[in-house]
Structures are given as C-alpha cells and as structure tokens.
Amino acid sequence: MKDVSLTRVSASNAMSPSTTTATATTTAKTTSVKLWTSTAPVRQRQLWQQCSEASSLSGVHCDFRWLAALCDGLHHEPYVLEAVQDSQLIGVLPLAFVKSTLFGRFLVSLPYVNSAGIITGDETAAAALISRAVGLADELNVRYLELRHEVGFEHPALTRQLTSKVHMRLALPSSSNELWSQLKSRPRNKVRKGEKQGFTVSWGSHELLEDFYAVFSRNMRDLGTPVFGRRLFRSILTHFSQKAELCVVRSGRQPVAAALLVHGNGVTEVPSASSLRSFNSANVNDLMYWHLLQRAIERGQRVFDFGRTTRDSNTFVFKKKWGARPEPAVWQYYVRKGDVAGMRPEGGKYDRMIRLWRRLPVGLTRLIGPRIVRGIP
Predict the structure, then answer these.
(1) What is the pLDDT of residues 110-144, one digit of tens each?
(2) What is the DSSP string of 24-61?
C-alpha cells in the first residue's frame, strides 16, 4: 500500500499573499498559513499529529491519521494547511481533493468521516485557515469546499451549511454491568433474544476483512448505496493499527453482522456497521452493538460515538434507545458552482438510481460501487 505523504509548496508558486497571512488586531500577532501537498518529512507529520492530539477538541475525527488513511484508501489527493504564529504550529486543516468524471471536483475535510475540519483553538488561525482553503478551492476549480465541523466558524466565504443531521453519542460508565443497568427493558430484551440464537462474536483486523466486507457490501446494495472498496477499510486498519478493529458476528460459519471500530482518545467510534436483513428478527444487530459498547468500556473509553444521523429517523431511534444523545453537526460550505443539496441523497435527485441499484447483483455492486462512491464527497 502506498503511503500518503506531503510536501511543502512554496509561497512563490502556490500561495497568494492575500491568503497566506492574517493579522489579529487584538493580539497584534501575524498568523501565516503554509500549504503542503504530495510528500512531507516524517517530523512534519508528527507535528500535525501532536497538534491534533493536543487540541481541546475530542474524538477520533481529530486524529490526523485519517487524512492518509482516506487518501490511500480512496485515491484522493491530500492537502494540509498549517497555521503558524511566532514559529509555533497552532492549527491545522486536513483536506482531500475529491474528483471524478461523474460528479466533478470537490475539496473536503474529510470524506467518509462524520467530523473533521479545522483543528485549532485560535480564532485568528481558524480565519486564516479558512481563507487559504477558499483560495485553494478556487485554484483547484472545485464545485465547493466542504468543512465537516461540529461547531460552526464565522467566515464571509462560508455561505451555506447543513445542520439537519446530528451526532449520536453515549457517555459510557466504568463497567458493562453499570451500562446494562442503565438500559431500558426493550434493548435489554432484544440483546437477550440475540444471545439465545447461538451467534458467535469474533474480533480481529485484516484477517476478518473479507467477512466484514461480505456483510457490509450486501447491506449497502440493499440500501441502494454504492459500496466503498475493501481498499478503504484495509487502509484504515493499517494506518490506525492497534486503534482500529473489526467485529464479526456469525451464524454458524456465515457472517451475518459486522462493524468497524476506531478507538480514539477517550472516544470509540463506529464509522461503518451492517447486518443482514434476513437476520433482523433474530436481533443480531442489537447483540452486535451490545458487544461494541462492551468493547469500548473494556478499553477504558468515556464516550461511544454511534455516528451521524437524521433526527427522528429509524437509525436515530435505534441509537437513542441505547441512551445516546444528539450533538450538533455543522457542515459548512464555500460554494462555487451548483448547489450542495444536489449531491445529497436525501434531496431526491438520485431516487431512481437508488431503486435500480437495489436490484443489481451484489457482485456487480462490489465491482463498480467503489469507482462511483470515491467521487462522492
């Protein structure tokens, strides 16, 4: 697997003066923004990782390894903007250049994950990073710049935002027994029913990828959604090493539910999870999620992130029954061409294609799905 790395682009050939610096009148400090692309020294990447780990922001999404994992797994071109004051790194913004013949060009922080965007606690640095990202979006001639924030940033170029979805997160107690006692009777009964079906639960990494993908790809076909390729999940497991793992639930030898877990600093996230519809009545999904929650507690995590969902949808209700509470999701946009809603499945534009996709053979969707979905921001 190719390792994504980055290189510094000099101001003379990549950055215009209007977007490389910003001055805060309250502090009289100048913030310079440096742009990196293609390859960067290991030391520089270590600094970005340290900056993300030191941020007051929490969650797996702040881990800078996502940029390399996603660009490796989806063949995107990576960019990093870094904000510097007095020779000190005070903020970073990872970006992926997403382009395809079918959908066009986009600059995103970041695709696949629910949260990314600017990592800094300094308002001046944030403004400078956004300004440079806007300039880069112009240079790359993208349809729009998308910043997947949890708290919105004020900037004149960010004229659109989506707030219709929320993150569902559960504060974890110190033990599984305590969590069990907090659950209402309905989720407990569903877990008990699943436990009586004779399912087995396995944990692992690359060795479980084929079983995970067998379940995940079939479920995506049933939903009418092009599936990500194995390469993406292989890349995540590689870049996150001991922090990422797969859970596979089997009925006999058949994998019937599976999930990807990524453990961050106090937060465990489940970016992808699926179960076969034919086993819904056996409550295999409830059983799997109970094991996912237990796993997070065993690792001493404080929060379980169920992911982003639409309020009052079926997935919202499912996550809420575990005790998860909604938190804001603020996706902000600098739009240059067209409309943001045109790329969202909930807009209705792709309803016919979704119905058609559901009728395709699973094997065919595994072949052509990754080529399509990599171009969707």
Answers:
(1) 999 999 999 988 899 999 999 999 999 999 999 99
(2) ETTTTEEEEEEEEES---HHHHHHHHHHHHHSS--SGG
Contact assessment for residue 64 and residue 45, using Cβ atoms and an 8 Å cutoff: yes
Note the CATH number of domain 167-325+361-373: 3.40.630.30
CA–CA separation, 313 vs 301, rounded Å? 27
Tell me the pLDDT tens digit for each residue of 52-88. 777 655 555 678 889 999 999 999 999 999 999 888 8
- The terminus-to-terminus CA distance of the chain in angstroms comes to 23
Task: Please state whether the peptide bond connecting residue 246 to the residue before it is cis, i.e. omega within 30 degrees of 0.
Answer: no
| 278 pLDDT above the threshold of 50 | yes
Q: In what order do the strands lie in the sheet with 325-328?
A: 200-204, 244-251, 254-263, 267-275, 303-310, 165-171, 325-328
Of the candidates 291, 282, 264, 234, which has an alpha carbon nearest to the alpha carbon of residue 116? 264
Please say whether the dihedral angle defined by the alpha carbons of residues 354, 358, 364 and 366, taken in this order, is positive or negative: positive
Beta carbons of 90 and 81 less than 8 angstroms apart? no
CA dihedral 168, 173, 175, 178 (to 10 degrees): -90
Mean pLDDT for 19-27 is 42
The label of the residue with tokens 């087995």 reads 200
pTM beyond 0.70: the answer is: yes
Superfamily name and number for 7-163+330-343 = Gcn5-related N-acetyltransferase (GNAT) (3.40.630.30)
Q: Span 197-219, mean pLDDT?
A: 98
